[in-house]
Amino acid sequence: MAGSFRASRVGSPAVERLIPQGGAVGSDWIVPNWPAPPNVRALCSTRSGGCSDPPYDSLNLGLGAGDAATAVAENRRRWSATIGALPVFLRQVHGTTVQAIDTASSDGQTADGAITRQSGVACTVMAADCLPVLFANADGSCVAAAHAGWRGLAGGVLESVLQSFFGFPRVLNRDSASEIIAWLGPCIGPLEFEVGDEVKAAFMTGVPEASHFFAPRKPGKWLADLAGLARQRLRSMGVTQIHGNDGGAGWCTVRNASMFFSHRRDSVRLGGSGRMAASVWLD
Questions:
Q1: DSSP secondary structure, the chain, as one string
Q2: pTM score, two decimals?
C-alpha cells in the first residue's frame, strides 16, 4: 500500500511521522528516516490510533499484558490495514532465535527476530522500553526485525539476525555486513535505564569497550545506553549504515508518556502497559 500515506519531516527525533490520508488516526506513527531501497517499507507505532482503554490507551498491539483480547485484535487489524501487509506477531522471550516468515506464517512463534524475502508479509517486533531494530539489505531483497532488550542484545540477537541474511555456512564478515542498513526505534533512554552490575558484566564479557555505555548511578547501579550498546555491536560486526535512535531525549519511551508505552514507567504506577510495534516489509 505504497500510496496510502504521506510523511512529513519533523525535528526531533530525526524521523518522519505518518499522516494517513483522510484521518488523524496514527498521526504520530513513525516512518523511519533511513536510506532503504524504495521497495522496502517500514513503520513504527506509537500509543495513538487504537481502541484500547487505559492504561493501554490506545493502540496496544500486545497480547498478554492485561488488555482485552478484542481490543488488541482490532488494533492489530488497523495496523495491518494501514501497512497493507501481513504483520506476523512473535512470542518474544528475550532470546536470540530468528524466525523466517512468509505469508503462510502464523502469529505466536517463539522468537525475538524475524526475516523474510517475500513481499506482503511484515517482520514485526513489539516493545515498551526494549529496542526494536529494523534491517534491510542494499538491494532490497530481504528485510528483518529484532527485539533487543538487554538480555537479547547481550546474548546476540543482532548477530543472529545478521547471520540470517546470509545463511549458514556462509561466515558473517565485515564486507557482507556492510551491505546491511539498520534503523533503531524508540526505547528506554540512557538517563532512565538503571541496571545492576550483572547487566554491565553481561555486555562487557569479551567486549570491554561496552563500558563506555554505562554511567555510574550509585554503588552497584548504572545507567545504561541501550541504543548506544546496539550501535556498538552493529559497528563491531561491520554495519556502517545505522540510523534512528541516537540516545536523544525524544527517543526515550519513559520520558515521552503521551507518545510511547513504557513498561518500566507504567506497570507499577498504572498496573499495566501496552506494546508498540515496529514492522518492515517488501512492497
A1: -TTSEEEEE-SSSSSEEEEETTS-TTTT-EE--S---TTEEEEE--S-SS-PPTTS-S----TTSSS-HHHHHHHHHHHHHHHTSEEEE-B--SS--EEE--TT--TT-B-SEEEESSTTEEEEEEESSSEEEEEEETTSS-EEEEEE-HHHHHHTHHHHHHHHHH-SSSPP-HHHHTTEEEEE--B--TTT-EEEHHHHHHHHTT-GGGGGGEEEEETTEEEE-HHHHHHHHHHHTT--EEEE--S-GGGBTTT-TTT---HHHHHHHHS----EEEEEEE-
A2: 0.91
